């Protein structure tokens, strides 16, 4: 019988350092990408998939040293981040100049799908952000800004129209029938909105300490129909703090628990599992469970469950 609980420990995450087109571009060449649940959006065959379950969304992560950035891109499906470690600047627009916001540990950002976005570690230490991506098939879902493709080619990386990277530094060539991906034209770029901070930050960003303050509304719906961010990206996100899921419950959907602060004891069908900060735990549908803080002090995590909505958020409120 399948164990209903599947744990990926933070300390056991295996990075891919050649996941995307900007892997050789100075300023972006030190980033690490992690594929935790599902296939993710990596363009490299070198990625390690920790759990291949298809549950309606993907879980990934990005780790970067200070001053390292992730180049401008957009997605065809939802992309939600929360900051696990460090201090991060998120910026958006075709040239990264339309708007920006600084996020600290625990803050969550549901980035509007049709907007070009990038992010940078502006802290003093190695930082980590956790990601939720809409849909089971997130492969090929990344669209890069034209200048990112040009910079990558100048440093030996070419993205094929099959969604795979080819490294000329390793003498790799595009196979027969595969051509370099065609950059977006200026006319095509006009379809991607340039949104100011006032159109993004109030509606798509929620701060960790504001969520912690909602102690009488726990678990707190953060993303979903009727949530603080009232969007329908194909999954819903709840914020869970100390003592909010102490009674046994069941779910008719799989759920993912992502540790943020403190330590939690998850009990499923009588078996205990400890959830630490940075751990990702998939719990199958149907199993009875309780979730309680394992020690005294601050404790929080994010819970993600699939919905029947299309795997891409709307734009506009």
Notable traits:
single chain; 4 helices; Cupin_2; Jelly Rolls; 9% helix; mainly beta; 317 residues; 2 domains; RmlC_Cupin_sf; 7-stranded mixed β-sheet
Question: Can you walk me through this structure?
Answer:
- The protein has two domains: 11-205, Jelly Rolls (Sandwich), CATH 2.60.120.10; 212-306, Jelly Rolls, CATH 2.60.120.
- Helix content is 9%, strand content 38%.
- By secondary structure, it is mainly beta.
- The mean pLDDT is 90.
- Strand 13 and strand 14 (165-167) form a beta hairpin.
- It is built from four helices and 24 strands.
Largest sheet: 7 strands, mixed
Radius of gyration: 19 Å
Strand line-up of the largest beta sheet: 3-2-4-11-6-9-15
Spatial shape = globular
CATH architecture of the largest domain: Sandwich
Catalogue the unreliable spans: none
Helix content: under 10%
Number of helices: 4
Q: What is the CATH homologous superfamily assignment of the largest domain?
A: Jelly Rolls
The share of residues in extended strands comes to 35-45%
Q: Whole-Å distance between the termini?
A: 45 Å
- Helix-strand makeup class: mainly beta
According to CATH, the fold-level topology of the largest domain is Jelly Rolls
Work out the number of β strands: 24
Helix/strand order, N-terminal first: EEEEEEEEEEEEHEEHHEHEEEEEEEEE
> How many domain units?
2
Query: What integer is the average pLDDT?
Result: 90
CATH class of the largest domain: Mainly Beta
């Amino acid at each position: 019988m399948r164990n209903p609980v599947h744990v990926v420990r933070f300390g056991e995450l295996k990075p891919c350092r050649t996941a995307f087109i900007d892997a050789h571009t100075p300023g972006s060449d030190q980033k690490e990408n992690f594929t935790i649940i599902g296939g993710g959006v990596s363009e490299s065959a070198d990625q390690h998939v920790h759990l291949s379950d298809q549950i309606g969304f993907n879980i990934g992560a990005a780790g970067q040293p200070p001053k390292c950035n992730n180049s401008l891109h957009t997605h065809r499906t939802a992309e939600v981040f929360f900051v696990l470690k460090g201090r991060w600047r998120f910026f958006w627009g075709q040239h990264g100049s339309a708007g920006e916001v600084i996020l600290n540990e625990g803050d969550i950002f549901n980035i509007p799908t049709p907007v070009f976005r990038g992010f940078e570690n502006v802290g003093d230490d190695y930082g980590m952000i956790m990601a939720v991506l809409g849909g089971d098939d997130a492969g090929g879902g990344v669209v890069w800004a034209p200048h990112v493709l040009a910079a990558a080619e100048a440093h030996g990386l070419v993205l094929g129209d099959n969604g795979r990277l080819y490294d000329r530094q390793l003498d790799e060539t595009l196979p027969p029938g595969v051509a370099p991906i065609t950059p977006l034209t200026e006319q095509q770029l006009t379809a991607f909105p340039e949104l100011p901070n006032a159109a993004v930050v109030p509606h798509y960003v929620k701060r960790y300490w504001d969520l912690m303050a909602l102690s009488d509304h726990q678990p707190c719906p953060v993303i979903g129909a009727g949530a603080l961010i009232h969007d329908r990206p194909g999954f819903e996100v709840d914020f869970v703090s100390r003592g909010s899921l102490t009674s046994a419950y069941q779910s008719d959907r799989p759920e993912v628990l992502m540790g943020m602060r403190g330590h939690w004891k998850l009990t499923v069908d009588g078996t205990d599992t400890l959830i630490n900060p940075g751990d990702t735990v998939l719990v199958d549908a149907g199993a009875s469970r309780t979730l309680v803080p394992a020690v005294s002090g601050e404790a929080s995590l994010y819970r993600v469950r699939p919905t029947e909505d299309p795997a891409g958020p709307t734009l506009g409120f």
